[in-house]
From TrEMBL:
<dbReference type="Pfam" id="PF17785">
    <property type="entry name" value="PUA_3"/>
</dbReference>
<dbReference type="InterPro" id="IPR029063">
    <property type="entry name" value="SAM-dependent_MTases_sf"/>
</dbReference>
<dbReference type="GO" id="GO:0006364">
    <property type="term" value="P:rRNA processing"/>
</dbReference>
<dbReference type="Pfam" id="PF10672">
    <property type="entry name" value="Methyltrans_SAM"/>
</dbReference>
<feature type="domain" description="PUA">
    <location>
        <begin position="4"/>
        <end position="75"/>
    </location>
</feature>
<dbReference type="GO" id="GO:0008168">
    <property type="term" value="F:methyltransferase activity"/>
</dbReference>
<keyword id="KW-0949">S-adenosyl-L-methionine</keyword>
<dbReference type="InterPro" id="IPR019614">
    <property type="entry name" value="SAM-dep_methyl-trfase"/>
</dbReference>
<dbReference type="InterPro" id="IPR015947">
    <property type="entry name" value="PUA-like_sf"/>
</dbReference>
<keyword id="KW-0808">Transferase</keyword>
<dbReference type="GO" id="GO:0003723">
    <property type="term" value="F:RNA binding"/>
</dbReference>
<comment type="similarity">
    <text>Belongs to the methyltransferase superfamily. RlmI family.</text>
</comment>
<dbReference type="GO" id="GO:0032259">
    <property type="term" value="P:methylation"/>
</dbReference>
<dbReference type="InterPro" id="IPR041532">
    <property type="entry name" value="RlmI-like_PUA"/>
</dbReference>
<keyword id="KW-0963">Cytoplasm</keyword>
<keyword id="KW-0694">RNA-binding</keyword>
<protein>
    <submittedName>
        <fullName>Ribosomal RNA large subunit methyltransferase I</fullName>
    </submittedName>
</protein>
Length: 400
């Protein structure tokens, strides 16, 4: 056979016909010669054109569909970018929230591409060789459509190694911008575009921050793995009587303090080495050590750690970590308190995460009730045809 493209094995076209984006190598009976990232037509075993996918020999996911049916793949890319932008414009009032995810990979029918908007600056992440090759068209489209001040690339994802790619960071359009001030639900944050986690801010927890703020009224609050203080600021806005903000990074804690001042909250008193920290405490500490050492006499504790499982082989170790931090908190929290606990590890699904928290509750010998689950940020849509896009999960627990 010398046909250009991918031909699937008999009976292996159902997922693609159901608009699932991934083609695994085991489903392929024939593929023509190609360069990594190249777009190829995809056919079923009877010769029916199913769409187009960009491909990579290095990965178990051989192809990722960027168009279905007989539509031109680049035109479909532009159409999906248009659709993603239109949806965000319908969701957000820029005067209240001007930072959000503009494109969420398969959730917006563009596998491998993340674009986050921070006021007038866009940050793009490319996870795949296919998106790397399409980057010039994507940047050209964004400049024409949105006229950003700058477009910054932060493609520092571990998945790029499997794709055979190096990390790629830096300015790709416009003027150099290191920090940008944004607003989220009326709260102000300074986002460091260069020295930051993810693309600069954890936009996916927006709805959970709102919920935490509602729960925080008249409560003492501990925000662990706080990064630049997102949950802490919402807690203060919601009427918390005390908020302690803890992270292992001194730079993140410094940024959290700056965000407090930016919003007109009272500056904190000098931080003592132990004990209560006044109304607002900013503590640089390893969270595991902090939870072991402190009394944790808080009404509301938030555990929102970074991904403990970056790959499938990390799952067992990650579950130990999730169990430890939840057990340490549950052992010490007062009766009637609330724990918000989250996991952003893709390889630890919701069922497994709840099982781990159950084990933590058993070991802590506490009665625990689930009073809420994760509130999805609408700018991080999950494609109903591609449920693998779901990675973030949270439990809101009432402790007796």
């Amino acid at each position: 056979m010398n046909k250009t493209g991918i031909v699937l094995k008999p009976g292996r076209d159902k997922a693609i016909k159901n608009k699932h984006h991934w083609i695994f190598s085991g489903a392929v009976s024939y593929i023509s010669e190609f360069s990594n990232g190249e777009i190829l037509p995809v056919y079923n075993s009877t010769g029916e054109l199913l769409g187009h996918a960009y491909c990579n020999k290095n990965t178990s996911i051989l192809g990722r569909m960027i168009s279905f049916g007989n539509t031109d793949p680049v035109k479909e890319l532009e159409k999906n970018l248009e659709s993603a932008i239109a949806m965000r414009k319908s969701l957000f009032n820029e005067k209240i929230t001007n930072c959000y995810r503009l494109v969420n990979s398969e959730g917006d029918n563009i596998p491998g591409l993340i674009i986050d908007k921070y006021a007038g600056v866009l940050v793009i992440q490319s996870a795949t060789a296919g998106i790397d090759l399409l980057k010039p068209q994507i940047v050209e489209f964004l400049v024409k459509k949105l006229k950003p001040v700058a477009i910054y690339e932060k493609s520092d994802l571990s998945s790029r190694r499997e794709e055979g790619l190096t990390m790629s960071e830096g300015l790709v359009y416009g003027k150099e911008v290191k920090n940008v001030e944004v607003i989220e639900n009326g709260l102000k944050f300074v986002v460091d575009l260069v020295n930051s986690q993810k693309t600069g801010f954890f936009l996916d927890q927006r709805e959970m921050r709102v919920w935490a703020g509602e729960l925080a009224k008249n409560k003492s609050v501990l925000n662990c793995f706080a990064y630049t203080g997102g949950f802490s600021l919402y807690a203060v806005q919601g009427g918390a009587k005390q908020v302690d903000t803890v992270d292992i990074s001194s730079e993140a804690i410094q940024r959290a303090e700056e965000n407090f001042k930016l919003n007109g909250f009272l500056p904190p008193p000098p931080t003592p080495s132990s004990g209560m920290r006044g109304q607002f405490g900013f503590i640089t500490a390893d969270i595991f050590e902090f939870l072991r050492a402190e009394k944790l006499n808080y009404d509301l504790i938030i555990l929102d750690p970074p991904a403990f499982a970056k790959k499938k082989t990390d799952v067992i170790k990650a579950c130990r970590g999730y169990k430890d931090i939840n057990r340490l908190a549950l052992q010490k929290m007062p009766a009637g308190s609330i724990l918000i606990t989250s996991s952003c590890s893709y390889h630890v699904d919701e069922k497994l995460f709840q099982t781990v928290v159950f084990q933590a509750a058993v070991e802590a010998n506490r009665k625990v009730r689930i009073i809420g689950r994760h509130h999805l940020a609408p700018d991080h849509p999950i494609n109903i045809f591609h449920p693998e896009g779901e990675y973030l999960k949270s439990l809101v627990l009432y402790i007796e």
